[in-house]
Amino acid sequence: MTRPDLTEAEYAGEVDRLARAVRSAALDEGWLCYGPDPEDATALQRAVNALARTLRHHHFPGDGCVEEDRPLVELAGVVVIRPGVMPSASDETYEQACLRIGVEPREEGWALWCTWGKERARITMVVSAVDTTEGLLANWSRGVPVSPVRPVPSQIALIHQGWAGPMTLSPRAVRQLGLLESP
Hints:
Elements: H1 8-29, H2 43-55, E1 77-81, H3 94-101, E2 110-116, E3 122-127, H4 130-140, E4 156-161, E5 168-169, H5 171-176
């Protein structure tokens, strides 16, 4: 029997479907590993584990898949501010928000990462990693609880006590910490 001709999009969709089926079978067999491969893993197991790690989420700069030497940052949520594009619950302009936060307006905008500092104090990091934040949001919108790597010092403009709001909550924070989104 011959295969029907598939468009490029249909072919990619079929490959993705089959890859997810392979990942599910390995999980059902109890040997799938998202972390480092066990020393006794076979070549097939290593390949399937690598495939599963790739399928887990939409990749973006700072997602931790390449930057293994930097730890992940646990986030409660994020806010992105840009010229002309502000959170819907905000009544201030981009320039007003930058002034309030204490940073110079940038054409690329800023990302506000709501996380925890020493003794679990709530803090907001004002970072230039807007593309990383957009990658987080793309994953979170699908319920994928990814975390970014710690920004390098040159990406951190300021750190404020408390959380900025309103923020988009991470799926992990909603689930693990019992945070509820505002109506």
